[in-house]
Automatic annotation (TrEMBL), chains A, B:
Record GO biological process: L-histidine biosynthetic process
Assembly behavior: Homodimer.
Pathway: Amino-acid biosynthesis; L-histidine biosynthesis; L-histidine from 5-phospho-alpha-D-ribose 1-diphosphate: step 2/9; Amino-acid biosynthesis; L-histidine biosynthesis; L-histidine from 5-phospho-alpha-D-ribose 1-diphosphate: step 3/9
Main location: cytoplasm
Catalytic activity: 1-(5-phospho-beta-D-ribosyl)-5'-AMP + H2O = 1-(5-phospho-beta-D-ribosyl)-5-[(5-phospho-beta-D-ribosylamino)methylideneamino]imidazole-4-carboxamide; 1-(5-phospho-beta-D-ribosyl)-ATP + H2O = 1-(5-phospho-beta-D-ribosyl)-5'-AMP + diphosphate + H(+)
Protein name as it appears in the record: Phosphoribosyl-AMP cyclohydrolase
This protein's UniProt keywords: Amino-acid biosynthesis, Cytoplasm, Histidine biosynthesis, Hydrolase, Magnesium, Metal-binding, Zinc
Length: 128, 128
């Protein structure tokens, strides 16, 4: 029997649903990415968050290359069934720039600036 | 001169960008909705969050009908420039069901259930 949450998701015309990742204890919003049906199913069955990469057109097991995995604490669905909120435990950093959160660009004094610094260099993160 | 954050947004093929609303002090993720260029511009200029309703095909000034407005504290853009995070002060409830957050569906003992109760009835919210 299919998972009841999976059955309730209203995937878009491309078969995708946006998923917001939030650090379960601090409340920090880490990133937003997309999932297809297989990604949601894998996330629920393994407890490791798996997205769908629209550029690579395939499953994107978060942390597979960087080691910065997301352990699922709870998956929630919104009122319309078309957006997911994943409460996760993020190991290290969520952003490919080496920052904890992807949401680091904001306006300061008329300019768009990075309001947080990388915690680790992308070179180190991806082993180049 | 256009706002530097607005200029940096990578809108999708439909001219839209997803925006996550988070209560600025508690960290609660309230909802996710879409914005077009005009909605972002209005949000930045008025300090009241305005989305774009895909069903109504027009600007959706959050709280216009229900009174449950969102005051903008800060608008942040993610690393790829294709998702916004709005730190807001939500008056009352964000969800049309009368719940504080739209993300209230989760699995409990094999069933999809509502994990929070409405704080106000939708009838009262929309004055029916």
């Amino acid at each position: 029997m299919e998972n009841p949450l999976l059955s309730a998701i209203a995937f878009n015309a491309d078969g995708l649903v946006p998923c917001i990742a939030q650090q379960h204890d601090t409340g920090e919003v880490l990133m937003m990415a997309w999932m297809n049906r297989d990604a949601v199913a894998e996330t629920l069955s393994t407890g490791r968050v798996c997205y769908y990469s629209r550029s690579r057109r395939g499953l994107w097991r978060k942390g597979e290359t960087s080691g910065q995995v997301q352990t699922l604490k709870e998956l929630r669905l919104d009122c319309d069934g078309d957006t997911l909120l994943a409460l996760v435990d993020q190991l290290g950093v969520a952003c490919h720039t080496g920052r904890r959160s992807c949401f680091y660009q904001a306006e300061r004094e008329g300019e768009l600036v990075a309001i947080t610094a990388p915690e680790i260099s992308p070179d180190k993160l991806y082993g180049h």
